[in-house]
Design goal:
By secondary structure, the chain is of the alpha/beta class. The chain folds into two domains: 3-191, Spore Coat Polysaccharide Biosynthesis Protein SpsA, Chain A, CATH 3.90.550.10; 200-287, no CATH class. The chain is built from ten helices and nine strands. Strands 1, 2, 3, 4, 5, 6, 7, 8 and 9 form a nine-stranded mixed beta sheet that branches. Strand 1 (3-9), helix 1 (16-24) and strand 2 (32-37) form a beta-alpha-beta unit. The longest helix has 28 residues, at 260-287.
Length: 289
Amino acid sequence: MNYIIVTTLKNEELYVEKTIYSIINQTVQPIKWIIIDDNSTDHSYEIISKFISKYHYITLEKNNEIKLNEKGARIASIVDNAVKNTCLDDINIIIKLDADVTFKEDFIANIIGEFISNPKLGIASGILYYKGIREKILFPEYTRGAIKFYRRDCWNSINGLYHTTGWDTIDNESAMINGWETRTLNFPFNHLKEEGISQGVFKMYYTAGLYYGKIPYYWPYFILKLLYRIFQKPCFISSFITFWGYVKMRYLISDKPFPDELSLSIQNSQKKRIKNILTNFYVWNLWNN
């Protein structure tokens, strides 16, 4: 299977070279790697430029088109725009890749192998490690935004990415509605910095709340989400900021960019999770009494 990679980055001079080496050392090389520098003020652009003459498939551009302020929406829009401007006639897989991840030489080949063996697999990612700690996978059907593999036919059927924060959840739901499978596969990759740190903690939680209000999240599930986050730093404040973002979007701004079918699918998934939580809690109590 032939594949392309799309990466958007801003101020990743500490990590981008490591990501580049991860790609150029892969056992299966891309047809094209489109890197879009989103107006970096560090040396990211110069670092990437060193590799262009040696590796013909790497192209480096500057983002002069997408001006959205919301970080998640901006990233999704830049990636989506890059794919739309690329000829995909001979491409089977599209990879969205962050500029701060590393992985073994056979990482891409292994995941592409899963697409070959399962024609219904539409979206996939590996398992994230940060500082050597494996992320706990609660919902394996939800894939990681840091590095995501899309079957081209699946990408086309979901019409690319929604230009919003939470695009990496929305695409999974949209793919499943269209009959595709989405999977977190047991192939590790390393995230070199903490997610969301570049936009600041307060803005990260506030933006998350706005996104939850856009869906909108099923109310009891949203409350559980707040309780889960209540002791994340800054304690209590993180949940309050998320709550305010949710209320503002759902009841004051009332921006509803998603089709009813997609919102309903997400809410139904959340209801099933609550049911599973309650069932497991009941079984646990029976076992311990």
